[in-house]
Task: structure prediction
Amino acid sequence: MDKITLQANGKVNLTLDIQGRRADGYHLLRSVMQSISLHDTVTLRRKPLGQGISLSCDQPFVPRDERNICWQAARAFQQHLDLKDLSLDIELLKTIPVGAGLGGGSTDAAAVLYGLNILYQTELSLTALQKIGQTVGADVPFCLQGGTCLVEGIGEKVTSIDPFPALIMVLVKPNQSVSTAEVYGKLDRGSYGGNSTARLLEYLAGKGDDSLSAILANALESVTLDLVPEVRLWQERLCQAGAIVSRMSGSGPTVFGLFATRREAEDFQARFSGEAQVFVVTLMEQGVRVLETNGGDQL
Result:
């Protein structure tokens, strides 16, 4: 096999609680993350030995060198296995908006690790791939596992949990983007704690009677609202259009709204797609999946 193409699904944070901050500056989180159908496409092609790594992307602003997280994932895979040579072409077709809080870079890196494990027949376990992924991005371990998961620590502890209800989701990415590092840097200690994740776990296990609108929360939302006030506008619009609940994903500024019917979701998309990037998505059971392989001669 010399080529593999993968679907790299994005993610949303259904809840996000910040538990504290480590001495090295990393924040400790507790979050329920969910894979979604909005995805990028990642193709890996083995090249003749000695040609090194090359990367192409359909978006001109995406770095095509060692600054790219996919490049870093490939190098981390090579170092973990002590491979003398990794000659590889990485092709990215981007649909997930950059800087949106939807895990676009992380899921692309996860797809690279997942695909290399197949392409090079290394048979690494999910746990081993997640340990490699953790070195390049906090959300990579979740994106490798996918589905509905409890994510803890700095992102390295990933546990599959009861699935979230099969609602239709609308994503709205305002025109402005934010820096994850800036959002976390502005987070006040008063925002630490929170129990939205614990309450959602009870809800999914059939033990809670609160509504999703009362449960779902994001500790970073107040910070991002100061940077992108438009976040509140889109939340209000989603709820006015019939969304059961609307919250921000990750560090934002993307907001999601959960709808009971696809028609309501598509009506919202048709009405507002000219003002922002609006996507109608479904919830997925996996983070990465193989689309196609080419069983050509080994190089």
